[in-house]
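Researcher:
Attend to C-alpha coordinate order:
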Amino acid sequence: MAKETKGDAPLVWSSELGRICPDCGRPVAGCTCRGQKSRPAGDGIVRVRRESKGRGGKTVTVVSGIPLDEGALKVLAGELKRRCGSGGTVKDGEVEIQGDHSELLVAELTRSGFRVKRSGG
Protein backbone atom coordinates (compact mmCIF):
# COMPACT_ATOMS: atom_id res chain seq x y z
CA MET A 1 0.00 0.00 0.00
CA ALA A 2 1.26 3.50 -0.81
CA LYS A 3 2.41 5.84 1.92
CA GLU A 4 0.37 8.85 2.92
CA THR A 5 1.71 12.37 2.46
CA LYS A 6 1.59 15.23 4.96
CA GLY A 7 -1.68 15.57 6.81
CA ASP A 8 -4.70 13.56 5.74
CA ALA A 9 -4.27 13.97 1.97
CA PRO A 10 -3.79 10.60 0.23
CA LEU A 11 -0.98 10.03 -2.27
CA VAL A 12 -2.27 10.44 -5.85
CA TRP A 13 0.97 10.35 -7.89
CA SER A 14 4.25 8.53 -7.57
CA SER A 15 7.23 8.95 -9.91
CA GLU A 16 7.86 5.21 -9.55
CA LEU A 17 4.29 3.91 -9.95
CA GLY A 18 2.48 6.72 -11.76
CA ARG A 19 -1.10 7.62 -10.88
CA ILE A 20 -2.32 6.25 -7.52
CA CYS A 21 -5.95 5.54 -6.57
CA PRO A 22 -6.81 7.82 -3.62
CA ASP A 23 -9.23 5.24 -2.18
CA CYS A 24 -7.18 2.02 -2.05
CA GLY A 25 -3.65 3.48 -2.41
CA ARG A 26 -2.64 1.15 -5.27
CA PRO A 27 -1.58 2.14 -8.80
CA VAL A 28 -4.64 2.88 -10.95
CA ALA A 29 -3.80 -0.07 -13.25
CA GLY A 30 -4.04 -2.44 -10.26
CA CYS A 31 -6.79 -0.66 -8.36
CA THR A 32 -9.04 -2.99 -6.37
CA CYS A 33 -11.81 -0.54 -5.58
CA ARG A 34 -12.45 0.80 -9.11
CA GLY A 35 -15.84 -0.25 -10.43
CA GLN A 36 -17.00 -1.53 -7.06
CA LYS A 37 -18.64 1.72 -6.05
CA SER A 38 -22.32 1.49 -6.80
CA ARG A 39 -24.91 4.18 -6.71
CA PRO A 40 -27.64 3.80 -4.12
CA ALA A 41 -30.78 2.21 -5.46
CA GLY A 42 -33.42 4.80 -6.21
CA ASP A 43 -37.19 4.54 -6.26
CA GLY A 44 -37.31 3.35 -9.88
CA ILE A 45 -38.35 6.72 -11.29
CA VAL A 46 -36.11 8.61 -13.71
CA ARG A 47 -36.27 12.36 -13.09
CA VAL A 48 -35.64 15.04 -15.71
CA ARG A 49 -34.93 18.62 -14.61
CA ARG A 50 -33.59 21.82 -16.09
CA GLU A 51 -30.68 23.62 -14.39
CA SER A 52 -28.91 26.89 -15.01
CA LYS A 53 -27.50 27.84 -11.60
CA GLY A 54 -23.73 27.78 -11.35
CA ARG A 55 -23.33 27.30 -15.10
CA GLY A 56 -22.78 30.86 -16.22
CA GLY A 57 -26.38 31.25 -17.34
CA LYS A 58 -26.20 28.22 -19.65
CA THR A 59 -29.14 25.80 -19.45
CA VAL A 60 -28.52 22.09 -18.95
CA THR A 61 -31.07 19.27 -18.78
CA VAL A 62 -30.16 16.74 -16.07
CA VAL A 63 -31.50 13.17 -16.07
CA SER A 64 -31.10 11.37 -12.72
CA GLY A 65 -32.18 8.09 -11.19
CA ILE A 66 -31.43 5.91 -14.22
CA PRO A 67 -31.09 2.32 -12.96
CA LEU A 68 -28.12 1.34 -15.17
CA ASP A 69 -24.47 0.57 -14.54
CA GLU A 70 -21.77 3.04 -15.63
CA GLY A 71 -21.12 1.50 -19.05
CA ALA A 72 -24.78 1.27 -20.03
CA LEU A 73 -25.34 4.80 -18.72
CA LYS A 74 -22.65 6.15 -21.06
CA VAL A 75 -24.23 4.34 -24.01
CA LEU A 76 -27.66 5.75 -23.15
CA ALA A 77 -26.16 9.24 -22.75
CA GLY A 78 -24.64 8.98 -26.23
CA GLU A 79 -28.01 8.01 -27.71
CA LEU A 80 -29.78 10.87 -25.93
CA LYS A 81 -27.15 13.39 -27.04
CA ARG A 82 -27.53 12.28 -30.66
CA ARG A 83 -31.31 12.48 -30.41
CA CYS A 84 -31.12 16.03 -29.00
CA GLY A 85 -28.36 17.09 -31.38
CA SER A 86 -26.24 18.56 -28.60
CA GLY A 87 -23.36 17.76 -26.29
CA GLY A 88 -23.42 16.45 -22.78
CA THR A 89 -21.74 14.25 -20.23
CA VAL A 90 -22.24 11.68 -17.47
CA LYS A 91 -21.37 12.97 -13.98
CA ASP A 92 -21.97 11.18 -10.68
CA GLY A 93 -24.55 8.82 -12.19
CA GLU A 94 -26.50 11.63 -13.86
CA VAL A 95 -26.71 12.48 -17.55
CA GLU A 96 -26.29 16.17 -18.39
CA ILE A 97 -27.44 17.34 -21.83
CA GLN A 98 -26.60 20.86 -22.97
CA GLY A 99 -29.68 23.01 -23.58
CA ASP A 100 -33.35 22.68 -22.60
CA HIS A 101 -34.43 19.31 -24.02
CA SER A 102 -36.57 18.15 -21.12
CA GLU A 103 -39.73 17.36 -23.12
CA LEU A 104 -37.82 15.44 -25.80
CA LEU A 105 -35.90 13.49 -23.14
CA VAL A 106 -39.08 12.61 -21.23
CA ALA A 107 -40.60 11.25 -24.45
CA GLU A 108 -37.46 9.29 -25.40
CA LEU A 109 -36.97 7.76 -21.96
CA THR A 110 -40.65 6.82 -21.72
CA ARG A 111 -40.40 5.17 -25.14
CA SER A 112 -37.34 3.26 -23.86
CA GLY A 113 -39.43 1.79 -21.04
CA PHE A 114 -38.43 3.94 -18.05
CA ARG A 115 -40.88 5.52 -15.60
CA VAL A 116 -40.16 9.22 -16.05
CA LYS A 117 -41.18 12.35 -14.14
CA ARG A 118 -40.27 15.98 -14.62
CA SER A 119 -38.85 17.55 -11.49
CA GLY A 120 -38.25 21.14 -10.58
CA GLY A 121 -40.22 24.10 -11.91
About this structure: The chain has a mean pLDDT of 83. The domain at 45-118 is CATH 3.30.780.10 (Translation Initiation Factor Eif1). The two ends are 48 Å apart (CA to CA).
